[in-house]
Amino acid sequence: MSASRSDDNRFQTDGSWARKARELDRYRWKVLRERHGRLGSLLRLARDVLVDIAIGLRAKACLKRPTGAAPCQVLLLHSAPKSMALQRKNVLIDALRKRGHQLTEAALRAPADACAQRMLVAPPQAVPLRYLVYAAHAQWLVQTYQPKVLINERNGSLHAPFLRLALAAQGARLLHLAHATTLESSRRLGMNDYDYYGVFGRSSLEALQERRLRFGESTVVLVGSYLVDESYDLPVADPCIKTLLVLGVGPDREKESGYEDTYRLLRDWAGRNPHYRLLFKRHPRSKAQFWIDAATRFANIELLGIDCSLAQALAQASVVVNIMSNAGIEAGLAGRPVIHVNAGNDVDIFSHALFFGPQVRDEQAFSQQLQALERDYTDCVVRARGFADYHLVHGSKGLAKTVELVDDLLRDRDPAQDFELARLPAAG
Hints:
Blueprint: H1 3-14, H2 17-35, H3 38-62, E1 74-78, H4 81-86, H5 90-98, E2 103-107, H6 111-116, H7 132-145, E3 149-152, H8 160-168, E4 173-177, E5 196-199, H9 202-210, E6 218-222, E7 243-247, H10 251-254, H11 257-272, E8 277-281, H12 289-297, E9 301-303, H13 310-315, E10 319-322, H14 327-333, E11 338-340, H15 353-356, H16 363-375, H17 377-391, H18 398-410, E12 420-424
Parallel strand pairs: 1-2, 1-3, 3-4, 4-5, 5-6, 7-8, 7-10, 8-9, 10-11
Antiparallel strand pairs: 6-12
Helix pairs in contact: 1-8, 2-3, 5-18, 7-8, 14-17
Protein name: Capsule biosynthesis protein
InterPro entries: TagF_C (IPR043148)
């Protein structure tokens, strides 16, 4: 083990778990103050503390002695059991196992579930009762699986700082892999307490650097997307096939009026333009009821099967319609021009306008932009690939580069030899 890594481990294990809890208190207060006045923040903080203490009392009663371990090299920690069931990370799991790494999957448990399942082990240092369930679950995960590298995907988790402390005591590393760009304003992206933070590309790094409030510090690695491989190296489409692929949004957004208006805009446009074929790619968690109904009404609308991969969907299309999805980046990588359609008031976090023209809000503007695109399709393909380069390093090699990063960490090789790194300190 290198001297620098030994020094880092000593820093982590000597660090007080209670001090980490106090830092979290200050951070959570600042998060509240971003949105509320002092009185409102105090009331919400008091409510949160009472809830945390109640859960902490239950956690204290559910602590168990360490039992049999199931050691592995890599622990892939899903954000929740339901996320694990979606199997979205199978491509990464398969690639790491093919490389010969012993990988185990587990799911981060909500406080109540961790107590009910008694997935709690007393941390090596005292922590305030309000953080006991997070620290004890983190300690249980690390003691049970004893990974050399833990891959985390849950943004904003209060478990992360304690996972990092528990791992450091064993000379292990916490790698947080972004499952999307980090361009949104979500408060969850303020959590930054990881050893390494793998992001899609420079736009993601810049967005993190611009955040006014960040908890903890990490080393950002520009690694690309593990969801991308050579299947996105598609030949240029023929615009004469007149096939549009609509990228759906998540089920929470589908309920919002702006997204409902956008869906109706696209459905009605398709109904008035039967010479175009419109394919809809649902979000993995969406039931897509709107588009089931639309496909029943209009013969030129098709809801793609849930087992149809994004690369397979892109292979069928000549143009992609992006509302607010990271999948638009993969569309650019595949050389599919993008039209940004959004009838709501969202900010264009992906900067579509820099590459594809203004945001479309009505049927007339949609038809005009589509016709302009078809007149200069070859140039639009070039711009689409430029769009992908802006957001995504390593292109279709993202999966291979992610496996390489895990290799580096397992072999105690400095990732700076293979990747562009940036130190991301705490802020706020």
